[in-house]
Specification:
- By secondary structure, the chain is α+β, with helices and mostly antiparallel strands.
- The longest helix has 16 residues.
- The protein contains three helices and seven strands.
- The protein has a five-stranded antiparallel beta sheet with strand order 1-2-3-6-7, sandwiched between helices. The chain has a two-stranded antiparallel ribbon with strand order 4-5.
- The chain has a single domain, classed as Peptide deformylase (Peptide Deformylase).
- The structure holds nickel (II) ion (NI).
- The site of nickel (II) ion has 5 residues, from helix 2.
């Protein structure tokens, strides 16, 4: 079942999230949350989703740059940390919480991250291109940071103004 994705303006999206506690690993609750987040992300045709986007202020993200085409590309990152970043890429980026807006965002070309899986095991991921971008974008969500914060002030204010207009018309909730 798809969960409701919160839209920009909801305070949950700008609140730093708490780490998943040791006692939560290997529980059905955590596995179900990840499964529901994948379903929600595929339903919305996204490549990444962070728990705060569904109102859960925990450091958990799901990513699949294959959009459900390749099981091997499914990633669940719990309590992720980016441990290295190199180079830069500039490319179009969007966010399921800010639908209809896409902008050029500068990100590292290559990142290394460590994270825990649903059973609590630590693992390392090395990523470049789109996957590096997705890891950075989702990791930002866990700190309450949106891609809007990575744009120039001018661009950010222009998007915020358009969103206020949509909200007034009842087209943003
Ligand atoms: Ni996002």
């Amino acid at each position: 079942m798809a969960m409701k994705i919160l839209k920009y303006g909801d305070p949950a999206l700008e609140t730093p999230c708490a780490p998943v506690a040791d006692s939560e690993f290997e529980t059905a609750g955590l596995a179900e949350l990840a499964a529901e987040m994948f379903a929600t992300m595929y339903d919305a045709q996204g490549v990444g989703l962070a728990a705060p986007q569904v109102g859960i202020l925990k450091r958990l993200t799901v990513i699949d740059c294959s959009c459900g085409e390749n099981e091997a590309e499914k990633l669940v990152l719990v309590n992720p940390e980016i441990t290295a970043a190199e180079g830069t890429q500039v490319g179009e980026e969007g966010c399921l919480s800010i639908p209809g807006f896409r902008e050029q965002v500068k990100r590292p070309q290559f990142v290394k991250a460590r994270a825990r899986g649903l059973k609590g095991e630590w693992f390392e991921v090395e990523a470049e291109d789109l996957l590096a971008r997705a890891i950075c974008h989702e990791n930002d969500h866990l700190d309450g940071v949106l891609f809007l914060n990575r744009l120039s002030r001018l661009k950010r204010e222009s998007i915020k103004r358009k969103i206020r207009g949509l909200r007034r018309k009842g087209e943003w909730d």
